Amino acid sequence: MATLKVGINGFGRIGRLVLRSIVNRDNVEVVAINDLLDVEHLAYLLKYDSVHGRFDGTVSVKDGHLVVNGKTVRITAERDPKNVKWDAVGVDIVAECTGIFTTLETAQYHIDGGAKKVVISAPSKDAPMFVMGVNHKDVKATDKIVSNASCTTNCLAPLAKVLNDSFGIEEALMTTVHATTATQLTVDGPSKKDYRGGRSAMLNIIPASTGAAKAVTKVIPALEGKLTGMAFRVPTADVSVVDLTVKVKKETSYEEVKKAFKTASEGELKGILGYTEELVVSQDFVGDPRTSIFDADAGIELNPTFFKVVSWYDNEAGYSNKLVDLAEYIHKL
């Protein structure tokens, strides 16, 4: 298979971790980055990371471009993706990581700018959404623009799939206890989203809305009207956890629920869904490439049809790894 050439638009938390994921893979390389920061600053942010540690390789700047592990990565600073000229460096797929160009219309700008396909690193109002291990096989070769959904959807969807396939979901409520992200403020200030979202991320547990549960119904249509959820933003830098309370159709036991997740983690969802019986905490999952790690010890049973299941995810590294997996899958179609 020919090497997949990736362009990254937006070199923030996800953009940088997409690159970190790619440098450890054969047959994939980052050939271009478009970001408004100057190249020296981009190099610094790639080299040093407060959560994930120093970059395991070499990073330098030469002639206005990045050199990563000896390979040149073209740097541009175009506000309009139509002007990036992705085709000049042979980009096959753009990882759209700005959080701005998330619709079919705006992501099309990358195609207009020379890219062949686009994977959006956020939920999309109208682009088809895919979650690895859940519905990624529904991607068609003709799909030029796809969404990798959200980090929380990538955690929740495998959970919902296993429960629904094994026992049938009657109804469910999700809470994600979510690490701080770049959109939050360190001290109190105005927030475009809602008043509470503008309060200090360092000092508060902040209730927030999330479209993650609704997005799961897009990737598992059978759950339409059966699943919704909310979030609490908490003062940690990375790693989040999904708490899913579910009423199932088929009577079972928590032991059988655990068995279903263990089987899935070793079978069709291997590398996507994890399973642990260790007494772990959030920091133990920093850098984990899987998007949903079922915590067997944390779940509980109220009665044979009512359960709580808990699953961890590195909302940065896990998500970025699966975005690259999705890009690789699309490239092979």
TrEMBL record:
Gene3D superfamilies found in the cross-reference section: Dihydrodipicolinate Reductase, domain 2, NAD(P)-binding Rossmann-like Domain
Residue positions binding D-glyceraldehyde 3-phosphate: 150-152, 181, 210-211, 233
Binding residue positions for NAD(+): 13-14, 35, 79, 121, 315
Annotated GO biological process: glucose metabolic process
Keywords, ordered alphabetically: NAD, Nucleotide-binding, Oxidoreductase
Site description Activates thiol group during catalysis, residues in chain: 178
EC number(s) reported in the record: 1.2.1.-
Extent of the signal sequence: none
Top enzyme category: oxidoreductase
Entry keyword annotation includes Oxidoreductase: yes
Alphabetized InterPro entries for the sequence: GlycerAld/Erythrose_P_DH (IPR020831), GlycerAld_3-P_DH_AS (IPR020830), GlycerAld_3-P_DH_cat (IPR020829), GlycerAld_3-P_DH_NAD(P)-bd (IPR020828), Glyceraldehyde-3-P_DH_1 (IPR006424), NAD(P)-bd_dom_sf (IPR036291)
Active site positions, chain numbering: 151
Domain Glyceraldehyde 3-phosphate dehydrogenase NAD(P) binding: 4-151
Recorded GO MF terms: glyceraldehyde-3-phosphate dehydrogenase (NAD+) (phosphorylating) activity; NAD binding; NADP binding
PROSITE patterns attached to this UniProt entry: GAPDH (PS00071)
Keyword match Nucleus: no
Pfam families associated with the record: Gp_dh_C, Gp_dh_N
Reaction equation(s) it catalyzes: D-glyceraldehyde 3-phosphate + phosphate + NAD(+) = (2R)-3-phospho-glyceroyl phosphate + NADH + H(+)
Subunit structure, interactors included: Homotetramer.
The family this protein is said to belong to: Belongs to the glyceraldehyde-3-phosphate dehydrogenase family.
Functional note: Catalyzes the oxidative phosphorylation of glyceraldehyde 3-phosphate (G3P) to 1,3-bisphosphoglycerate (BPG) using the cofactor NAD. The first reaction step involves the formation of a hemiacetal intermediate between G3P and a cysteine residue, and this hemiacetal intermediate is then oxidized to a thioester, with concomitant reduction of NAD to NADH. The reduced NADH is then exchanged with the second NAD, and the thioester is attacked by a nucleophilic inorganic phosphate to produce BPG.
Protein name: Glyceraldehyde-3-phosphate dehydrogenase
Recorded name of the encoding gene: gap
